[in-house]
Design goal:
Number of domains: 1
Order of helices and strands: EHEEHEHHEHHEEEEEHEEHEHHEEH
Helix content: 25-40%
Number of helices: 11
CATH topology: Metallo-beta-lactamase, Chain A
Structural class: alpha/beta
């Protein structure tokens, strides 16, 4: 299986996602004979069809937190992956609120769909799980869902880190280190601050400490769109000297050859 990163959507707030100005289907990672679907938000199955992705080939589905633009279609994806439980297969991995909920919200993953897969795994920061030949670690995040996790994928070919939604967090940045590829959810442009979301300035700060081979920014809010995403990415690259890609809906890249070209 050729390694691929496929961005099924790059929307990051109610304005870009609510109008589907940008898609919200999540991210596909294919490597080491596994297919992972990360954070399947609204429109995930339609985005899979357009990208030529078969949900039946999923090895695991990941949900980093219990917000609709990250988990709305998790059950639909699990349904397609298992033919509504007729073929019990695969794994679903979620943060605490996605798996069991809390006093404020129901869990994103239904009891029925938990029975459709072979394993349901709940991860908290610092914990790891092995799925086939890939080890996946959970990283802390600073977000309005206080149980949000980032994800770090240790493959035979590269280490990929996905921040999920988070504000700047020193503990998380420490865990991002030694990543070949760093995917950052940069909702806001330079100068627009938030304690629970990254902006361009935060991305620069993080990348300068982590120094990955390649950085990819995604999950854009309307202010980021209005500021011009490409210019924000160029500014990140200028200030970090790390090759920085602004994701686009439907973008497909080979994480090995693309990052190696800029090593």
């Amino acid at each position: 299986m050729e390694p691929k990163l496929i961005f099924l959507g790059t929307g990051g707030d109610i304005f870009t996602v609510g109008k589907q100005q940008l898609g919200s289907g999540g991210i596909i990672l294919r490597v080491d004979d596994v297919q992972f679907h990360i954070d399947p938000g609204p429109g995930a199955l339609g985005a899979c069809r357009l990208a030529g992705i078969n949900p039946r080939e999923n090895t695991a589905v990941f949900v980093t937190h219990n917000h609709l633009n990250h988990c709305n279609d998790v059950n639909a994806v699990l349904d397609a992956m298992t033919t509504s439980g007729n073929d019990v297969t695969g794994v679903v991995v979620g943060n605490k609120t996605a798996v069991i909920g809390n006093e404020e919200t129901m869990p994103a993953i239904t009891n029925f769909h938990k029975k459709c897969v072979e394993r349901v795994i709940m991860l908290e920061p610092g914990q790891k799980v092995g799925i086939n030949d890939v080890e996946v670690g959970a990283i802390s995040a600073r977000h309005t869902d206080h149980q949000t996790i980032g994800l770090k994928f240790y493959t035979s070919k590269f280490v990929l880190t996905y921040t999920s939604d988070t504000g700047y967090d020193e503990a998380a940045v420490h865990d991002y280190k030694d990543s070949d590829i760093l995917i950052l959810n940069v909702v806001l442009p330079s100068g627009v601050k938030s304690d629970t979301q990254l902006n361009t300035d935060d991305a620069v700060k993080i990348i300068n400490q982590v120094k990955p081979k390649m950085a990819i920014i995604t999950h854009f809010g309307i202010k980021m769109v209005n500021a011009d995403i490409i210019n924000e990415a160029r500014e990140i690259q200028k200030q970090t000297l790390v090759h920085t890609v602004a994701a686009k809906d439907g973008m497909i890249l080979n994480p090995i050859t693309h990052s190696a070209a800029y090593k």
